[in-house]
Amino acid sequence: MMKKLISLLLTIAIFVAVAVPAMAAAVNPELVPMIYIRGNGEAIYDENGNQVTVDLDTLSVNGNTDGIDKDTLIESCANILLPFLTEGLLMDKWDSYGDALYEEIAPLFEKGHLDGNGNPMYGTGVHPNVLASSEAAAKRNYGTDGRFDLYDYNFAYDWRLSPYDHVDRLHTYVQTVMAATGAKQVSIVARCFGGSLLMAYLEKYGSLGHVKNAFFADVLSNGTATISHAMSGKLYFDSNALYRYMNNLTYCGQTGVGNGFVLTDLVTEIIFTTVDLFNQVGITDTFIGSVELLYQKLYEALMPALLSAVGMATQANYWTCIYEEDFEDAIILMFGDENDARRTEYAGLIEKIRYYYDHVTSCLPELYKTFSEDYGIHIGFTAKYGYTNAPYGPGQNDMTDALVSLKDAAYGATCAEVHKTLSDEYIQSRIDAGYSAYISPDKKVDLSTCAFPDTTWIVKNAHHNHFEVVSEQLAADFCRSTGMTVQNNADYPQFAVFDDTTNTWTAMTEDNCADFDWLHVAQEQPTKITRLQALFRWLYAIIPVIIAWFSSLFGN
């Protein structure tokens, strides 16, 4: 009996000796779990469990797609361009053009649309199984091995909605993770659109002290020229920017990186030859400026129809990308003046849009200061560049990751235009002020003007879609560390260069920081011969569409 008792006591002692460290690890306050908020990565499904189209990826196909019927594409072009020619140019009536554009494109995106209150239509949303899996994960402790990983706790949400539609549920999620792990704080990593949700969450709940580290990876929440200028109508065109962008898209299509927008040979040829013609003859620099009234009418008919058709105008999260100075113009362009019927139809959505604007967009500098200094949150950023922005408006020559400008993603960075460098005078002034370490080796970026210059990392020649191979490990290590900066962690150089052939990135030097070859191709001066060649190439490409127009006119 004594033997059994001693054996039992030894067994209990051994169990306690093994279990206590494990239990201590589970409630170790030094272990900080990470919550990951992705961008628009969550697929959207209808009430029958079928995935629906909700974004522009529908129109973007890398490489040529033989499965798309050539005649259908020609007919689609004709349906849109016929009212442009007949009613628009000839009769100065543009409503039909906008209606035709909407009717041609909206069916591709309609199930992803939101209603006038900014709520899903057709019962769409994140799949219930995905939401259930996310909620179940929050109740588990993944840190018993002494380490948390980036994707342990993925917060699933419908990225189309206003960030403030999710902040209370995110707060509950944070509390659930803390209870399951015994942690006193969490770290949050936000990517792309997720940055807007993180900003809204910190604005409402940051003062509670639950967040130790906040890492913003390539976020759009500081504003995005591509979206802001399109939705506010602050556009103008530069022929070289157009040509660079087409080469940008061609490169993406060939490499399978991001959205190449390379469809069939027909569409590619029409677009590329048109841009080439514009570049050669300078039509975008002179024609549009000489008929500004025509352009304005065309734009007012085109953009609300297009952005409503694809859902951008009514998906509240896109409005978090609007610059403060563009906001009121965007409201007017998308929803009309105060007494417009669309203002009434979308009153609920507009209220949600304005709420985010009032609480975040118009307060960005003060908010970051509050988060960092008052709430004690350690804040970090990653941003990328080397690609071109969409070829319109004041941001068309910005350095970007093909979606968000470096100066926005690296909040407050000073950047040269995409095909230029910072001036020698500017660089010398920063060196004299003691900021030489923050000047990139390619002389395109000054990070000393960032909101957080010591916790901002940038990677050149990396696309917005390169998160896993560029920012993932950095984000995780930032959230595991206490006070990680560019100075106290040699594993992550502040300036790096990405090689998309090997999916690796290394410290940037003066020897490895060259731009992509295609970036400067538009700088060559046109000649009479190249202009003539461009004209013939354009005519050859456009002939099938011209034939389709005449067929439509005569009912054939």
* Major beta-sheet overview: 8 strands, mixed
What is the alpha-carbon Rg in Å? 26 Å
What is the chains' assembly state?
single chain
Kindly state the mean pLDDT as a whole number? 81
Tell me the strand percentage band: 5-15%
Number of strands: 14
Terminal residue distance: 102 Å
Q: How many individual helices?
A: 20
The coarse silhouette is globular
Q: What is the percent of helical residues?
A: 40-55%
> What structural class is derived from the secondary structure elements?
alpha/beta
Taking pLDDT < 50 over at least 5 consecutive residues as the criterion, the unreliable ranges are 1-29, 58-68, 284-292
Characterise the protein shown here.
This protein is an alpha/beta fold and 556 residues long. Helices cover 47% and strands 10% of the residues. It contains 20 helices and 14 strands. The strands form four sheets. Strands 4-1-5-6-7-12-13-14 form an eight-stranded mixed β-sheet, sandwiched between helices. A two-stranded antiparallel ribbon has the order 2-3. It has a two-stranded antiparallel ribbon with strand order 8-9. Strand 12, helix 19 (472-480) and strand 13 (495-499) form a beta-alpha-beta unit. The longest helix is centred in the C-terminal third of the chain and has 26 residues, at 528-553. The protein is globular. The model is unreliable at 1-29, 58-68 and 284-292 (pLDDT under 50).
Topology:
Blueprint: H1 2-26, E1 34-37, E2 44-45, H2 70-91, H3 95-109, E3 125-126, H4 128-138, E4 153-154, H5 167-181, E5 186-191, H6 194-205, E6 211-217, H7 225-232, H8 239-255, H9 265-281, H10 283-290, H11 292-310, H12 316-319, H13 327-335, H14 341-345, H15 347-359, H16 364-374, E7 378-385, E8 387-388, E9 399-400, H17 406-409, E10 414-415, H18 424-432, E11 445-446, E12 456-460, H19 472-480, E13 495-499, E14 504-507, H20 528-553
Parallel strand pairs: 1-4, 1-5, 5-6, 6-7, 7-12, 12-13
Antiparallel strand pairs: 2-3, 8-9, 10-11, 13-14
Helix pairs in contact: 2-3, 2-20, 3-11, 5-6, 7-13, 8-9, 9-20
